[in-house]
């Protein structure tokens, strides 16, 4: 009942519900008035009462369905808005990255053009800077070729945008995020926002842990089977962890006040009948797999 009231308030249906109830009240009063008139038989009164009750039931059913339709419509609107925001963010990140590459290229050319002065001698004040610039490798177009074609297999735009964001976050921390997809496409049909939340938390944890390790590689794999999709993330470990405790609130290797991420993941998974988690440690690498049962 409380949830129904929240929906009525959020969808601004208060006025419509009030008018419907007012109509029912007036109809009921009319029936009572007609029942008091002389010449109105019990049969007529009974027929009117039956019609009124039928009308009331029909009205309640219509109101319920109206609220459900509005609820679905609101979810679709919110989903479209979130997709638009993810697209805008992704375009912004890619544009910033392109601008950074262009700036670095132009800056390097400008400084190198100053290498030889008018006297034909090298300015020793800039020798270290020149050396560093000359030895730097050009920034590669990280989303070209194989990497871009791999990401395009993820048909869900918010999920693809999230992974690309984490790719750039990994790169900015000197890490390498490799994504492997076994099938031609990855298409999520339900629990999309929950899955995105889970993947975001798992990738953030993997990045935070890998930053502390000599091994700088994070592996992510999408494995499609007949009726399941497995999203596996593997990262190196700085210290041994107890996989029996990692999902408990407050457990963390990052100090006090931390350790809520995996606990939140566990709560989300437990609330969904088609989501499961599997964890294992292989060759000092921590691997966690989100298993999604595809229904229907």
Automatic annotation (TrEMBL):
One of its GO terms (molecular function) is kinase activity. Keywords: Kinase, Membrane, Transferase, Transmembrane, Transmembrane helix. The keyword Methyltransferase does not apply. Residues 191-292 form the Sensor histidine kinase NatK-like C-terminal domain. It comes from the Bacteria. Gene3D superfamilies: Histidine kinase-like ATPase, C-terminal domain (3.30.565.10). InterPro entries: HATPase_C_sf (IPR036890), NatK-like_C (IPR032834). This is Histidine kinase. It comes from Companilactobacillus nantensis DSM 16982. The lineage of its organism: Bacteria, Bacillati, Bacillota, Bacilli, Lactobacillales.
